């Protein structure tokens, strides 16, 4: 937990409110391998909370554990004040924790609209409907009967987001939206965030593309080998701190190989 | 003319085989369960029909109204208890568990119903009667009815899988059960629904078989399971209409074999099965169910 550049918790966060999602000392093993080693985080309503980190840092494992797809070795996950650590993934979805999984994971033998219908099958009441998803992604309506395999990567990602939105989540978890997509497509996909936030959702996302994460997030947390190395508001962390936290260059920031000037602040 | 007769009889028998096969195909397509007890469950349904008819005096042809829901409920329960636990432990365990189930069912049937064969006697003209086409072709009403039932069942399954809420969930879970969970679907419940549908169809197969032929405790593995497997493999795994095509090809092969030499009936069917397996292992129609 105490890396070289960990920032204090709280601070400018909405200190009055209680967190919507609260993870405490989460430890997760994949067999012998310790994937998460005591991760804690608090996501407040209306935030865009970004988890960044290199490959294998444990970002996806963290989201998947919050979604209920992995059982933690120890630690707890609380959602809206209630402990959900032992709940099955479908029960968590029913309570409003919905994830867009890494790699989209659309139902390949279903059409676009059928994918959305499955997303809506156990939906909570709320503002998001298939119709509204069509409005947000204009191309989708007239291509609703196509098999998802005929869509481009960005379009598939849009369907995956739509499938999660129509469940009317309270926390929308986005796992590596940018994976395998061209930067311009990534920009367009992230363009949906303002509307999503406006509808009252809270967003917890995992992103390997740090600059993208810093651009959209109101709070970031950097993981390295299953531990937190940096946490804070994007405005309050320097590029050097992020770099050090991302690559694990403990303290030795000026000696770093990257092309930036890398001087002490 | 005898050959034409053989082909017609074979096509009609294919309807019965499709009834055996579509449930097997569905359970494999959705749950990846190779249900070796499938045939025995059909026999259970047949005996159940005999019992239901004896107790309630319901008209024989209407026995399915009671037996199909009973078998569907049994299918749901079986999936949620034994089969789901087996699936959680892996594919091989599941295969062994269904094999064990098959042995248990067969011996329980032997215990309670003895090894004597029993038919679902109707005494109805429909079951024993036939009509003639020309002088040499005699077509039994029963086989025509069974074939029609098979077509209706397949149409119903197709409609259910492609249009209904649970059909959509079944296809989604078959594609990616983790993603379905993230959408709030309890895949174990959806599996249970699929098993219920599968056993509902096999119940019809078992009753039809009891009327068409004779039930005995070992018919499940001797005949029904093997024919169902052959029909599924010939038609193409996971394809609904493939099971009908596979059943028809199997039936025709058997009847033509019988035409050559009466003892070659079953052999001819398996030769075609083997040829398809070698030349076109994906089956004649290789598409996913409902897609």
Radius of gyration of chain A, CA atoms, in whole angstroms: 18 Å
Tell me the domain tally of chain A: 1
What is the CATH homology-level superfamily of chain A?
P-loop containing nucleotide triphosphate hydrolases
User: What Rg of chain B, in angstroms, do the CA atoms define?
Assistant: 19 Å
Strand proportion of chain B: under 5%
Total strands of chain B: 2
- What would the principal axes of the Cα set say about the shape of chain A? globular
Low-confidence stretches of chain A: 1-11, 252-265
Record field, number of beta strands of chain A: 10
First-last Cα distance of chain B: 39 Å
Give me the secondary-structure category of chain B: mainly alpha
CATH architecture of chain A: 3-Layer(aba) Sandwich
Helical proportion of chain B, percent range: over 70%
Instruction: Kindly report how far apart the N and C termini of chain A lie.
Output: 23 Å
- In which range does the helix fraction of chain A lie? 25-40%
**Count of alpha and pi helical runs of chain B:** 12
Q: Biggest interface, and residues per chain? A: A-B, 28 and 21 residues
Main β-sheet of chain A, in a few words? 6 strands, mixed
SS summary, helix count of chain A: 9
Q: Name the CATH class of chain A.
A: Alpha Beta
List the helices and strands and how they pair.
The complex is a heterodimer of chains A (265) and B (291).
Chain A lengths: L20 E10 L2 E11 L4 E6 L5 H9 L6 E6 L2 E2 L5 H7 L1 E4 L11 H9 L9 H7 L16 H13 L5 E5 L7 H8 L2 H6 L3 E6 L2 H7 L2 E6 L2 E6 L6 H9 L18
Parallel strand pairs in A: 3-8, 3-9, 6-7, 7-8
Antiparallel strand pairs in A: 1-2, 1-4, 4-5, 9-10
Chain B lengths: L1 H30 L6 H19 L6 H27 L1 H23 L11 H4 L1 E4 L3 E4 H23 L1 H11 L1 H6 L4 H26 L6 H17 L4 H21 L4 H15 L12
Antiparallel strand pairs in B: 1-2
Protein described:
The complex is a heterodimer of chains A (265) and B (291). Chain A is α/β, with parallel strands linked by helices. Chain A has one domain: 3-Layer(aba) Sandwich (Rossmann fold), CATH 3.40.50. Chain A has helices at residues 59-67, 89-95, 112-120, 130-136, 153-165, 183-190, 193-198, 210-216, 239-247; strands at 21-30, 33-43, 48-53, 74-79, 82-83, 97-100, 171-175, 202-207, 219-224, 227-232. Chain A has a 6-stranded mixed β-sheet with strand order 6-7-8-3-9-10, with helices on both faces. In chain A, strands 2-1-4-5 form a 4-stranded antiparallel β-sheet, covered by helices on one side. In chain A, strand 4 and strand 5 (82-83) form a beta hairpin. Chain A is globular, with a radius of gyration of 18 Å. The model of chain A is unreliable at 1-11 and 252-265 (pLDDT under 50). By secondary structure, chain B is mainly alpha-helical. Chain B has a domain at 19-219. Chain B has 12 helices and 2 strands. Chain B has helices at residues 2-31, 38-56, 63-89, 91-113, 125-128, 141-163, 165-175, 177-182, 187-212, 219-235, 240-260, 265-279; strands spanning 130-133, 137-140. A two-stranded antiparallel ribbon of chain B has the order 1-2. In chain B, strand 1 and strand 2 form a beta hairpin. In chain B, helix 2 packs across helix 9 (187-212) and helix 6 packs across helix 7. The longest helix of chain B has 30 residues, at 2-31. Chain B is globular. The model of chain B has no long low-confidence stretch (mean pLDDT 92).
């Amino acid at each position: 937990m105490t890396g070289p550049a960990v920032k204090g918790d709280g601070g400018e966060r909405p200190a009055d409110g209680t967190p919507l999602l609260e993870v405490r000392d989460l430890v997760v093993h994949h067999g012998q391998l310790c994937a998460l080693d005591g991760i804690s985080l608090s996501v407040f309503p209306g935030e865009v909370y970004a988890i960044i980190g290199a490959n294998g840092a444990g970002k996806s494992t963290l989201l998947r554990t919050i979604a209920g797809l992995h059982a933690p070795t120890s630690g707890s996950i609380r959602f809206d004040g209630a402990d959900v650590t032992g709940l099955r993934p479908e029960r968590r979805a029913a309570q409003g924790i919905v994830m867009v999984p890494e790699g989209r994971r659309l139902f390949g033998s279903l059409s676009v609209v059928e994918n959305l219908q499955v997303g809506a099958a156990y939906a909570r009441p709320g503002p998001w409907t298939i119709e509204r998803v069509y409005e947000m992604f204009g191309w989708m309506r007239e291509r609703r009967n196509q098999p998802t395999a005929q869509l481009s990567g960005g379009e598939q990602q849009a369907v995956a987001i739509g499938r999660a939105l129509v469940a009317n989540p309270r926390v929308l978890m986005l796992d590596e939206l940018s994976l395998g997509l061209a930067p311009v497509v990534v920009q367009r996909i992230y363009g949906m965030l303002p509307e999503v936030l406006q509808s009252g959702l809270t967003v917890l996302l995992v992103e390997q593309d740090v600059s993208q994460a810093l651009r959209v997030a109101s709070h970031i947390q950097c993981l390295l080998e299953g531990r937190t190395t940096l946490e804070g508001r994007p405005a309050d962390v320097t590029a050097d701190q992020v770099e050090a936290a991302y690559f694990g260059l403990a303290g030795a920031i000026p000696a770093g190989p990257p092309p930036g000037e890398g001087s002490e602040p | 003319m005898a050959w034409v007769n053989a082909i017609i009889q074979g096509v009609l028998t294919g309807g019965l085989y499709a009834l055996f096969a579509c449930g097997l195909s569905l359970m494999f397509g959705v749950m990846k369960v190779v249900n070796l007890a499938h045939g025995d469950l059909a026999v259970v349904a047949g005996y159940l029909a005999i019992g239901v008819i004896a107790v309630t005096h319901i008209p024989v042809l209407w026995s399915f109204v009671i037996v199909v829901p009973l078998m569907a409920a049994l299918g749901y329960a079986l999936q949620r208890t034994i089969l789901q636990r087996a699936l959680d432990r892996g594919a091989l365990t599941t295969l062994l568990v269904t094999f064990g189930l098959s042995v248990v069912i067969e011996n329980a049937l032997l215990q309670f119903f003895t090894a004597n064969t029993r038919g679902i006697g109707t005494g109805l003209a429909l079951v024993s009667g036939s009509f003639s086409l020309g002088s040499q072709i005699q077509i039994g009403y029963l086989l025509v009815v069974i074939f029609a039932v098979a077509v209706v069942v397949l149409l119903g399954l197709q409609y259910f899988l492609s249009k209904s809420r649970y059909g959509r969930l079944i296809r989604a879970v078959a594609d990616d059960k983790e993603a379905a969970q993230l959408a709030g679907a309890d895949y174990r419940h959806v599996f249970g629904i699929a098993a219920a549908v599968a056993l509902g169809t096999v119940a019809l197969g078992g009753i039809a078989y009891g009327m068409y032929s004779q039930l005995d405790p070992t018919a499940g593995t001797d005949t029904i399971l093997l024919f169902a497997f052959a029909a599924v493999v010939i038609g193409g795994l996971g394809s609904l209409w493939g099971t009908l095509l596979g059943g028809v090809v199997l039936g025709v092969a058997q009847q033509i074999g019988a035409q050559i030499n009466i003892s070659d009936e079953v052999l001819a069917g398996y030769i075609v099965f083997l040829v398809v397996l070698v030349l076109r292992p994906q089956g004649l129609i290789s598409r996913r169910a409902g897609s």
